[in-house]
UniProtKB/TrEMBL annotation:
<protein>
    <submittedName>
        <fullName>Fe-S cluster assembly protein IscX</fullName>
    </submittedName>
</protein>
<dbReference type="InterPro" id="IPR036762">
    <property type="entry name" value="IscX-like_sf"/>
</dbReference>
<dbReference type="GO" id="GO:0005829">
    <property type="term" value="C:cytosol"/>
</dbReference>
<dbReference type="InterPro" id="IPR007479">
    <property type="entry name" value="ISC_FeS_clus_asmbl_IscsX"/>
</dbReference>
<dbReference type="GO" id="GO:0016226">
    <property type="term" value="P:iron-sulfur cluster assembly"/>
</dbReference>
<dbReference type="Pfam" id="PF04384">
    <property type="entry name" value="Fe-S_assembly"/>
</dbReference>
<dbReference type="GO" id="GO:0008198">
    <property type="term" value="F:ferrous iron binding"/>
</dbReference>
Length: 66
């Protein structure tokens, strides 16, 4: 499976699994962007990870962690 920026929910699930001690409500976008790029299944253009997509990932991660 190869993750792209459009796979917001799948990225959020991967982040929740790989960073169980992190509260997604307090993650800044610089760290979030870096963590998404570091996911083993992620393969997309880093430049496409703008603020809107990072907001969507963060919101899905928050929902996933509740």
């Amino acid at each position: 499976m190869s993750l792209k920026w459009a796979d917001v929910l799948d990225i959020a699930i991967e982040l929740a699994d790989s960073k169980p001690d992190v509260d997604p409500r307090y993650v800044n976008f610089v760290d979030l962007h870096r963590w998404v790029l570091a996911l083993p299944d992620f393969s997309d253009d880093p430049q496409r990870g703008g603020e809107k997509v990072l907001e969507a990932i963060q919101a899905a991660w928050i929902e996933e962690s509740e």
